[in-house]
Structure formats: structure tokens, C-alpha cells
From TrEMBL:
Highest taxon above the source species: Bacteria
Organism from which the protein derives: Eggerthella sinensis
Protein name: ECF transporter S component
The keyword Disulfide bond is assigned to this record: no
UniProt key word Ubl conjugation: no
The entry's keywords: Membrane, Transmembrane, Transmembrane helix
Amino acid sequence: MTARILAALEVPALVAVPLVLGACAYFGVEQGALLTVVVAFAAVGVFFASFEASRPSLRQIMPTVVLGALGAAGRVLFAPIPDFKPVSAICILAGAVFGRRSGFLVGALAALVSNFFFGQGPWTPWQMYAWGLVGYLAGVLADRGWLDKPLVLYAYGFLSALLYGLLLNGWYAIGFVHPFAWEAVVLSFVAALPFDVTHGIATVVFLAVLYAPWRKKLDRIKRKYALVLDDPAR
């Protein structure tokens, strides 16, 4: 019963984060940064609690943990190149092969673990949420067979990086642009655009290199070990 309730809360939790962010911007909430961090943290918590409540076996946990670790390691390895990271590509791969929930958890774990190197802070729940959302939406697209089309895969890879940037930049604007003014918000988004575009290009490059061979190997592992991840959303 608990697992079903938590699973049913996953989509509302995902939707609540941008809604609260938008509401804070519209109403000019002074403590918007703190409030949105709490909401993002709660959304991430719903997914981890839902996964735990499903009582996954060790072999079901391992793909998510390994891909999350690879995402974190890739982020650290490419640290010298700003925003040129493989994290989004690995989140997309996880969602495509193992499902929406796994895609979300891989993104969340990659952000959390890599921030032990880059530094933890109020941005961590937002990074966990944003990269988790990238993996979750990849699972949605994969369910419909859209990621089997290279053009759709690469287009989503590029746009997912812009989505990640939109969320992180939105949180920054709501929390740290004082006094709040839409002109200042637009300027902050414009200033961040080159970095977001670099992130998008990097995601496409890593998808072009990794997606086909890694997916083939992961699909083989999934079949060999009969990995049926408990993902009620699928």
C-alpha cells in the first residue's frame, strides 16, 4: 500500500517543483530560494522513498547505482571543461533502458555523489531534481519508442540540457536576484545561455558516442539477469 501511494505521488512531486518556482516568481516571495529548495528536496525524497518501499533486490539496485556512479565520475573527470559533462547522456540512457524511476534516481545520485567533490549546498537538491527529471522524461519517451529515432534522441539530449539550465537558472533568479525584476531575470538567463548550449552540445556528443553501444550491453544484461525493475509508472 505504501509503495503504491508513493508511486502515485511521483508525478505530482515532479510537477510541484516548477509550479512552486513559478508561483514564487509571480508573487515575489522573499524566501523563494529556501521554499523551492525544500520542495525540490521533497520531490527527490518521494522517488527514493518509493524505490525503497518497492523492496528491490540487489540485482535490481545495481544498474541504478553503477550508472549513477558513472555519471558522477564522468562529471568529475570532465571538470576542467565547464558544462561539458556526460551526466545528462547517462541519465537518458538509464531512463531508456531501465525505466523512468531508474532514470530519475541515476540523475539524482550522480548529482549528489559528484557534489562531494564539487561541494554540497542548497543547489544540490535542485541539481538532483533537474538531472533526475532528464532521466525520467527519457523513460517516458523510450516507452513510446521515440528514442529509437536518432534525430529525436539527439534533439531531446540537447533540449534536456536547456531544461536543466532553465531550472537551475530559475532557482538562482528567484532566490538571489534582489530586488526581483523581470529584466534582471532575463539578463541572468541570457548570460547563462552559452553554458547551457555547451551542455547541450556535450550531451549530444556523448549520446552519439555512448548510447548505441552502452544500450546494447545494458539490454543484454537486463535480459540475462531478468531485470524487471519495479517501476509502476511503466
